[in-house]
Amino acid sequence: MKKILQGTGQVALLYAISFLLDRLLSLLHLAIPNSMLGIAILLLLLHTKIIREEWFEIGANWLLTELLLFFIPSAVGIIDYQNVFIAMGIQVIGTIFLSTTLVMIFAGLSAQLIAKFKVRNHSC
Amino acid sequence: MLALACLILTVIIYFSAKWYYQNNPKAYLSPLLTAPLLIIAFLTLTHISYQAYYSGAKWLSNTLQPATIAFAFPLYKYRSTLKQHAGEIIVGVLFGSIIAIISSDWIAKSFSLNPQLVSSLIPHSITTPIAMDIAKNIGGIPAIAAVFVIITGLAGALIGPLIIKLLKIETEVARGILFGTSAHGAGTAKAFEFSSVTGTISSLAMIITAIISACIIPTLIIWLGL
Of A1, A44, A97, B184, which has the maximum CB count within 10 A? Predict the structure, then answer.
C-alpha cells in the first residue's frame, strides 16, 4: 500500500515537472522538445545530488515498464486515416519496413564494428 | 463519463493483451498491435468516434511526456556502462539516424507517395512526442506521423530479432543501439526482453536518436533537397 502511494506521488511529480517545462518553453518561445530538456535537467539534478534516485524510483519504473500503454491511443488514431491506408497502405508499410531494416543493419553493424575494434585494441 | 470509460477500457485491454503476450510471446501478438485492434473493433461496433474516445484516452498519450523524462533515471543508473560505450552509441546512432531519414524519403518518393505523407514518414524512427513535433515543422501531419511511428515500433520488434540472428549481432551494446535507433520506445521494450543492459543502451540510443534527428532533419532537407 505504501509503495502504491509513493509510486503515485512520484508519477504526479514527474507530471508536474513536465507541465512546468511546457509552460517555461512556451513562455520563452523555445523550440527544444520538452522531454529532452526534462531529461537534461533531471540528469543535472541527479549528478549534483540535489535530488536522489530513490525519490522517483518506483514511479519512473512504472512509467517505463508500461511504456507501450501510452502509445495505444495514438495507434487507435489510425481509424481516422483509413482512406490513407486503403489507398496507400502497402506503399506506406513497405517504406517503413524497408527503412527500418536498413536502419537496423547500419546501426547494428557499425556499433558492432566499433565494439570489436575496441576489444582488439584492449588485448594488444 | 464516456471519456473516463474509454480511458479505463484502454487500460484493461492493454493489461489483458500484455498478459496474453507474456503467455504467448510471438511478435505478432505484441500488445502494441492487439490492443489497438481490439479497441478499434470496439469503437466500430459501438459507433463511438475517435474524438470521443480520445477525449479520455488522451491522458495516456499525455503520460508519454513524463515517461520520456523518466528515462533520466536508467541513464543515470547505468552512466558508467554508457560512458564505457559512448563511441559505439554515437557512431551507431548517427549512422542509423541519417539512414532513417534518407532511406524513408527515398523509398517513399520511389513509391510516389504525396509530399505530405513523405514528410510524415521522415521522422518514423523517433519517439512519438518528438516525431510529431518534427513532422509538423517539415510539412507533415502529426497524427499520421504518430501512426507511422507506431508501425515502425511493430516493424522493429518483428524484424529486430531476425536481423540480430542473420547478421550475428552478438554484443549487448550493438543490439541495444540497433533497437533504440530504429524503433524508439517499442524497440526498447523489445530490447529489455534480451537483457537489462540491452534495454538501457536502447533507451539511451532512442533519446540520442531523437536529439540528433531533431538537429539534422532540417539541415539534411536543405542540403539534399529532400
Answer: B184
Residue B221 pLDDT greater than 60, yes or no: yes
Range 37-66 of B in CB contact (< 8 A) with A: 39-40, 43-44, 50, 53-54, 57-58, 60-61, 63-66
pLDDT of residue A31: 67
In this complex, do A73 and B61 lie within 8 Å of one another by their Cβ atoms?
A: yes
Residue B73 grid cell: 533515471
For cell 507474456, what's the residue? B22
pLDDT tens per residue, range B125-139: 998 878 887 888 888
Report d(CA A91, CA B87) in Å as an integer.
Answer: 36
Residue A88: predicted pLDDT: 83
Distance CA A113, CA B4 (A): 50
Query: Pick from B207, B217, B223: which is nearest to B74 by CA?
Result: B207
Chain A 38-57, residues with CB within 8 Å of chain B CB atoms: 38-39, 42-43, 46-47, 53, 56-57
| B29: pLDDT strictly greater than 90 | no
N-to-C CA span, chain A: 55
Measure the CA–CA gap between A118 and B39, rounded to whole angstroms.
48
- How far is it, in rounded angstroms, from Cα B131 to Cα B129? 6
Are the beta carbons of A72 and B39 closer than 8 angstroms?
yes
**CA proximity to B68, closest of B183, B185, B213, B146:** B185
Task: Report the complex ipTM.
Answer: 0.84
How do the domains of chain B map onto residue ranges? 2-62, 72-224
Q: How far is CA A48 from CA A15, A42, B163, B182, in A?
A: 22, 10, 40, 32
How far is Cα A124 from Cα B20, in angstroms, rounded to an integer?
50
Q: Is B116 on the interface with A (CB under 8 A)?
A: no
List, in order, residues 6 or more apart from A76 with CB less than 8 Å away. B36, B39, B40, B43, B50, B53, B54, B57
The shortest CB-CB distance from A118 to any of B87, B130, B164 is to B87
How many other C-beta atoms lie within 10 A of the C-beta of residue B142?
18
